[in-house]
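Objective 1b of the project was to move from sequence-level analysis to a structural picture of ligand recognition. The entry below was assembled by the postdoctoral researcher (A.K.) and checked by the PI before modelling. It contains the amino acid sequence of the target and the SMILES of the bound compound, thymidine-5'-triphosphate.
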Amino acid sequence: MRTYILASRSPRRKELLEEMGLSFTVVSMEIEEHLRTDIDLTKAVEQLAYEKAEAVARCHPDSIVIGADTVVALGAQVFGKPKDEMQAREMLRALSGKRHQVIGGVAVLSAQQQVTFSCVTNVRFYPISETEITDYIRSGEPMDKAGAYGIQGLGKRFVEGIEGDYFNVVGLPVSRLLRVLAGFETENR
Ligand SMILES: Cc1cn([C@H]2C[C@H](O)[C@@H](COP(=O)(O)OP(=O)(O)OP(=O)(O)O)O2)c(=O)[nH]c1=O
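Corresponding predicted holo structure:
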């Protein structure tokens, strides 16, 4: 039986996988996250997930390594994690009253097999006032999250509606991932 490694520092991804009863360790490598703009956005996000997983898989060839990446797309604009509070404010202003896509890329790698996939969830925000934005930034919640919000936290107050996988927004499309992992299990038998 192979061991699983989650190649991510995200506490949300760890929690989501733990809730599913998967036994795994966390090993993450610092990689330079560069989102390609010459390919389709979903493919570029998958590629980042792949790079995160591959950096760890190289040192752990006997494990099944899971990498993930999440970005927020508003038309042609793509938001990762805000660099500072000013950028968080700009992202929240842009998302206010609009519908955006949360794109999650996932890569699962073993020595024998590599699967990458992406998941898109539509999220619509109510209009958000400057005061709400200021209060929200003061909470500290936006700073380590793509699009500067956390749907699972105080950020839920902005959400008018959602279409698609909620858990993809939180950081990991767990149900699809478990199905992919089941394929790796079969391969191991
Ligand atoms: C939109 C949204 C994102 N997020 C989080 C999920 C991810 O942790 C983060 C996006 O940043 P990522 O760069 O995808 O991941 P990370 O830096 O947290 O972790 P690692 O690269 O080590 O895997 O935003 C939420 O927690 N809630 C939300 O509603």
